[in-house]
């Protein structure tokens, strides 16, 4: 008899998950969680960042794919950006479910974006230094006015794409670190005691 009562008491006091995996938390639920739990607030803030990143990258993918018919590079870059945007929005949904897979997916997704941009820049440097590009034509027209300009093309190519590579490594690296560090907040929020009124809502 006492064992049964102890088991009942244990089932009542054991913390439950903040939300289920059936779907993202509703806006009302998100507000309640943000007010009650700092960890949940940080997870929901990360979800907003993922939403912004996803839509911004999606727009960039669409613009790149507009030139896909005339450029294979645009097709590759646009397709890669579309995959990154899709993963970003998928990671956002996982965050709203307080699913630990969300931060990991988003972190690796940012590293994938970093790799895509760096690869594009390296390819552009190679083409710029070994092939004929629009920049070549522009510099030739400039030489007609200013005379020989020497290694200006090489300098500009390395400066522009080198700067993009550096900026991407820093920005996407910090983004990835930000997402990865949300994992502990997801874990903390998942096992908080239920909010007042949750049992009635269920």
Description:
The protein has helices at residues 2-13, 27-36, 38-65, 72-96, 101-130, 134-146, 152-180, 183-190, 198-201. It has 202 residues and is mainly α. It has one domain (36-189). It contains 9 helices and no strands. The radius of gyration is 25 Å and the shape is elongated.
Radius of gyration: 25 Å
Number of domains: 1
> How do the SSEs run, as a string of H and E?
HHHHHHHHH
Largest sheet: none
Morphology call: elongated
Low-confidence parts: 1-21, 193-202
Which percent range describes the beta-strand content? under 5%
Distance between the termini: 29 Å
What is the overall number of helices?
9
Average of pLDDT: 78
**Strand segment count:** 0
* Helix percentage: over 70%
* Content-based structural category: mainly alpha
Summarize this structure as a short list of keywords or feature phrases.
disordered C terminus, single chain, mainly alpha, elongated
Short description:
This protein is an all-alpha fold. The chain is built from 9 helices and no strands.
How are the secondary structure elements laid out?
Layout: H1 2-13, H2 27-36, H3 38-65, H4 72-96, H5 101-130, H6 134-146, H7 152-180, H8 183-190, H9 198-201
Helix pairs in contact: 2-3, 3-4, 3-8, 4-5, 5-7
């Amino acid at each position: 008899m006492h064992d049964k009562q102890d088991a009942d008491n244990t089932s009542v006091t054991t913390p439950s998950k903040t939300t289920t995996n059936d779907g993202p938390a509703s806006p009302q639920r998100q507000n309640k969680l943000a007010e009650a739990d700092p960890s949940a607030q940080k997870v929901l803030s990360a979800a907003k960042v993922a939403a912004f990143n996803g839509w911004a990258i999606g727009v960039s993918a669409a613009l790149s794919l507009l030139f896909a018919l005339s450029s294979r590079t645009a097709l590759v870059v646009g397709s890669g950006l579309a995959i990154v945007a899709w993963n970003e929005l998928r990671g956002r949904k996982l965050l709203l479910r307080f699913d630990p897979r969300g931060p990991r997916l988003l972190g690796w997704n940012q590293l994938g974006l970093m790799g895509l941009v760096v690869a594009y820049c390296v390819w552009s440097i190679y083409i710029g230094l070994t092939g004929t590009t629009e920049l070549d034509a522009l510099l030739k027209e400039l030489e007609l006015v200013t005379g020989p300009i020497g290694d200006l093309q090489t300098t500009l190519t390395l400066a522009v794409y080198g700067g993009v590579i550096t900026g991407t490594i820093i920005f996407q690296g910090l983004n990835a670190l930000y997402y990865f560090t949300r994992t502990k907040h997801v874990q903390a929020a998942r096992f908080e005691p239920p909010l007042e009124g949750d049992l009635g809502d269920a």
